[in-house]
Write a structure and sequence with these properties.
This protein is α+β, with helices and mostly antiparallel strands and 374 residues long. It contains 13 helices and 10 strands. Helix 2 packs parallel to helix 6 and helix 10 packs across helix 11. The longest helix is centred in the middle third of the chain and has 20 residues. The radius of gyration is 24 Å and the shape is elongated.
Amino acid sequence: MLTIEWIETWSWCVPSFCSFLVFEPSQTKLVMSLCRGAGWNVRFIPDPSKRYKFHKSGHSEVAQPRALADFGSLGEGETHGQLLLVEAERTEANNIIRLIRAANVVVEGFPDQKYGNPSGFEIPDDASEQASIFKNIFQTNGFFELFSFNMERPVAVAMAVNAWSDSRIVYAIHKLSKSYETEAITPWSAHPRYGQIFEKHSGEFSDHVRSSIAINLAFSAIEEMKLQVNSSREKPRWLDDKYTWNPTVLKDIKSRLEKVGIDPERTVDWVVRGGDETELTIQPARNRFSNYSDGQIVRDIEFPLPDAIHACSYLRNFMTAHAFGKDTQRLGPYEVYNVQQVARFLILSICGLFNVWTRDLLEQMALQLRRDEC
């Protein structure tokens, strides 16, 4: 039986790790409440890098530590950010920190290329050692740049918390994050108002490999969630050469979607751009244009969700997972984007966070936050 004295000693000995994740001061209560839901022991301290200053109209950022002397002091109405510390053994602390970072990439739909993915940095208990690290390490080149802020990071914390008890969802988040890090286009660049921004294909072999890896990782994220279409020689996906769904197969994927709270009748926009029509043809071809397609440069297709998941598996099975063929060179950024977006939608939906932003979390958890204050 553990004695109270032993428990207190053990608790005191648990190390604290700097996450390099900075939050707006008004977000800390929300984040603390979320973390408690997963049983994480976290706390906040004033950001020792002093990289970010927050005020009523937003925030400002110091790009380099040598600029702190001129721009690091606070003006009227300004405050520095709050740094998240994780109190746990090293492996668990890194698992928490890296899951939040991976979730942030999924929430944004684009990799965090600016700040990287550092491990937690252990913070000593001794106050003088802490002060030395804060000044002589965290405010110097190489470490200063690791401190990052993102307004929607509380949503990433919520995703990490919701996934924490299910290793499959944890792996799905990490795999999709790694897919984005391998290859990605910004979500805004896929908006129909911009038409075709990127070349649809590349003649470079290394590009084909990179696109294939990104697609494989994104589809593997779908498999981690057990939301792939299951079919076989004995239970084929299609009944005929007109690609009529096998009702048994379709019912199976729909029931698994419903089981995790996803409407199987939902549609997904599959991005198809350019007037040359040289993109890969995915069988079966569904020619129902989305509402904003112009039929020329923007030829985006509206897929029912089971068809969108099938399209992802078609690219993986016939283009990227095995030895490359003559059509591999037709892979491009839009194919990668489409598979990533389907996986992203499924992860966000399973975590209950599709179209949920920080302001929505604050509204949803207002009652719980008031209870925490009591």
